[in-house]
């Protein structure tokens, strides 16, 4: 997506957010990249073609026979999770590329936090859809077009999940924010009680992903390949000695309990310039009202 002169202040604001995050010094300095099998295992598509492990990088390929997916070896109760991803390019209608957290078992009471990249026809920007499930209830979709081509190079996609807030980032720009107000707002949804796996996959979403399912995967345009990197995990594994809500864990510290004013401004910029669907604005979907959390966004 090519920017215009009117985007310049917005681009400068995003750069400021990146510099502030880099200068904060709150998080530990990253060590050498972890190999895939240190923290992750293949979930499906383990045939040597649909999922190929190259040490610190994994390629997932989807064709008419299969896609593939992988998962973390541990369950987590809080953390600042990330994945570097490069999406399939060209005609990708119907192709869904994901990075998400999900509780177990995957039933009607699950919690889930989704990055879902919905492919499209050649020349049409990929849609990033985020969604949050709490106790099996989803229907909280937000969709946006990114300010860069996610198929051209690797970018960071991050989920900060702690007892205070859930924040989803593209690189260092917040694209979704949900505070934990369960203690003061009855019925407020926040994924606070269940541990979750980290998962990622590429699969056929022809039934819904593009134009509401009207445009399907064209297998003659495939195969479709996504790249994943960044297999180190900053998270509180369940069963560990430290409680996952402990302030001793850096992602639970004071600097991660609210977004900053600069991050809030960047988030508002995303909603103004790039978001094209927000369930909180879709009153017709909810009988001319909005879910309770929308009143505190």
UniProtKB/TrEMBL annotation:
PROSITE patterns: GH16_2
List of catalytic residues: 112 (nucleophile), 116 (proton donor)
Listed EC numbers: 2.4.1.207
Keyword annotations of the record: Apoplast, Cell wall, Cell wall biogenesis/degradation, Disulfide bond, Glycosidase, Hydrolase, Secreted, Signal, Transferase
Localization terms from the record: Secreted, Cell wall; Secreted, Extracellular space, Apoplast
GO biological process, one term: xyloglucan metabolic process
GO molecular function list: hydrolase activity, hydrolyzing O-glycosyl compounds; xyloglucan:xyloglucosyl transferase activity
PTMs per UniProt: Contains at least one intrachain disulfide bond essential for its enzymatic activity.
Family of the protein in this entry: Belongs to the glycosyl hydrolase 16 family.
Name this polypeptide is given: Xyloglucan endotransglucosylase/hydrolase
Species assigned in the record: Panicum hallii var. hallii
